[in-house]
Amino acid sequence: MDYAQHTGFVTDPARIRSPKDKPRVERAVQYVRGNYWAGEDFTDLAEAQQRAEAWCRDTAGRRTHGTTAARPLEVFDEDEAPMLLPVPPVYDVPIFKQVKVHRDFHAEVARALYSIPGQWIGSVLEVRADSALVKFYARGNLVKVHPRQPAGGRSTDPEDLPTEKVGYAMRDLDRLIGTCAGHGRAVGIYAERLLDDPLPWIRMRAVYRLLGLVRRYGPGPVEAACSTALDLDVVSVSKIASMLERATETTTPLLPAAGSAAPSRFTRDPAEFATDRTGPATSGTTVATAGTGVATERTTVATERTGHLTVIAGGNTDTRETR
């Protein structure tokens, strides 16, 4: 079907394994096989093509057709040749396959990577790849078009990636430096120094580590550490991390101030534990059950001032001296 679209003719497909749907075509195959191929011996493909052209022109084309009662070559020259379209350009044979979109927003075609919008991650798409373009389809609908890349190449559209991943995926050094400068002037300058390399892309991980320190310690401490490192002409993220760790160790952490916490469930009033020196210290009532089942009320009163213990039980009073 793709070749038919390229050349501009229409196909009339028949059912699978149903030769009776196209008997005239099948009969022509038998005629070519028995009249041209039978008993012939060709040295190579070029000779077979030359002899096939001569056979079509001199033998098959000049015979009288059993159905039309006319010579096919004459019918072609008079009726069919004027209706032919111009010869199309050379057909660029494409690659058809199915690919899966991975979590890095890319799919692999012929050992090259092409970005796909994030909504298709995990999906299987159909691919048509020729020498110029690579087209991705989902159920017949065009999803993405990329220029064809050689093996090992990559074609990434920034619109297919989340905003926070564009800088890393596109190796955008200016965007990365701008992100660092947003946390402080010294941090931005330090990022530029880190990327000052003939191959700056291999130093991008160091800059991302610097941004990780900003998230961990905050922009202020990292800005101060980068400023000090620049004054000393030390360009090393490991040194920055060491400086921040030492500063954290020597800094007294701020403890939360003691506030008026709400009383807990079992908190007791301290006034309950106060002792009145002029009055009774304790007063309690105990109900005891004797073996006879008679309840006896017993009251004990201790007086600190007199130093005596008075026990009242069952109407009898007993006073004892306490030591």
From TrEMBL:
<protein>
    <submittedName>
        <fullName>Putative transposase</fullName>
    </submittedName>
</protein>
<feature type="region of interest" description="Disordered">
    <location>
        <begin position="1"/>
        <end position="21"/>
    </location>
</feature>
<feature type="domain" description="Integrase catalytic">
    <location>
        <begin position="1"/>
        <end position="80"/>
    </location>
</feature>
<dbReference type="GO" id="GO:0015074">
    <property type="term" value="P:DNA integration"/>
</dbReference>
<dbReference type="InterPro" id="IPR001584">
    <property type="entry name" value="Integrase_cat-core"/>
</dbReference>
<dbReference type="InterPro" id="IPR054353">
    <property type="entry name" value="IstA-like_C"/>
</dbReference>
<dbReference type="Pfam" id="PF22483">
    <property type="entry name" value="Mu-transpos_C_2"/>
</dbReference>
